[in-house]
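Title: Prediction job returns without error message
Component: structure pipeline
Severity: low
Priority: P3
Assignee: unassigned

Description:
Job completed but the reporter wants confirmation the result is attached to the right record. Sequence as submitted:
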Amino acid sequence: MLEALQQQGLLPKRCRQRLDSTHVVAAVANLSGLECVRETLRLALEELARALPEAARPAFWPLLWDRYVESKLDYRSSAEALQDKYRQAGADGLGLLQWLERLRADLRYGTQVELLAEVFAQRFELKENHPEPLEQSGGSAVQSPHDPDAQYAAKGRGSQRKTWLGYKVQVAEALPEQSQPPFVVSIVTQKATGNDEPGLDQTLDAQAQSGLERPRELYVDGAYISGSRLQRAVQEGWTLMGPAPASPRRPGVEERLPVEAFNVGIAHRRACCPAGHHSGHCSRLRVRQKAGVKVFYRFKWRQRCCQSCLLREKCVPPGQKHRSLIVGEHHEFLQQRRQEQSSEAFQQRMHRRNAIEGTLSELTRGHGMRRSRYRGFGKVELQNLLIGTACNIKRWLRCLITKANNAQSQASGLNLSFQSPRERGFGVFAQAFWPNVLSWQALSLPSVSS
């Protein structure tokens, strides 16, 4: 689809774009921990029953089959009874997995058996060889055995907090150029717990595989902005437009003068506080994190400067003798963006991003992207790609119809864009779907009589 649009001159290889993400709800029920373990056990037993003859089954097989396949969970039970069932399910799962260790590989490594081992490791911990349910499992834990790829995620706070079980999708759209429609240039499906900043990298990689170059400008919200991301964009020769997020606040410490109030120069290893005092010491820190080693810089001010400063109460936290500041190695890019985003020119440019919300609404409400029709990451990814293709086809057809109508208007000397379907001779059927109907008259097709 993107290649055809490029051949028709409707989509340049390098264009301005806007990007945002939305959530996709999985086609499974939201199960509790006990329900997830019991359902995983049921699927594993059914898988083993198809491969194991009755003579090869263990002595405890009838008990497990009756407990997890033929019986249902009584939700009216007390909390203590449900917790006991949870522990019982853990013990049964452990016993079944230990018995399977003596069997051949095709039984030990069946799809549902491996899933049972994964769910057991995520939901239980062994204490004196007895499985105990964990109070909390990570967001990447299996939430339903019917769709192990679906994850639980949350977004926002307070009344704006939104939770879902499913996936996340990144949608990039080209900004309209010279009265051309805005086409969807990439749709990237992520796990629900995926962050927007890695989603930006996946989006750019997907566009490169489709034959597109880096966008000239990419309009995003603050979730995609970081110092390292801004620095990489400058190196690659394109502009990442979006507001920089506020600096993180230390828990339990009230800082009236945040990092944004300080002028930091990483290259010269100096920082200036709002009172005009320069830092007296700078040290380079290397911190090992999950994503790798990150570099930070710590700036310290002299104690005698902070003691006599008029802004001490607003700057130095209680219990400290002087102010210190820790920033990342790309802090200067964030500092520059925070200064730019307060200007009216920057805010006017960011208006170009707003239309991506309408595109997300069209995809989720008009094409059903909000809920997946299939289970599994691969199928959900394919569904989202097909939805994006359908959206582009509709926009392309509307573009062709507009051009045909304009050409017909110029030839006849009339403006047909303001005429109703009945005035054009399309009939009652077309009138019912106006104005989204395809113009049969513009496409030189016979009209439909009333």
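Comment from assignee: result matches the submitted record. The chain has four domains: 2-26+160-243+350-380, 33-133, 259-339, 419-450.
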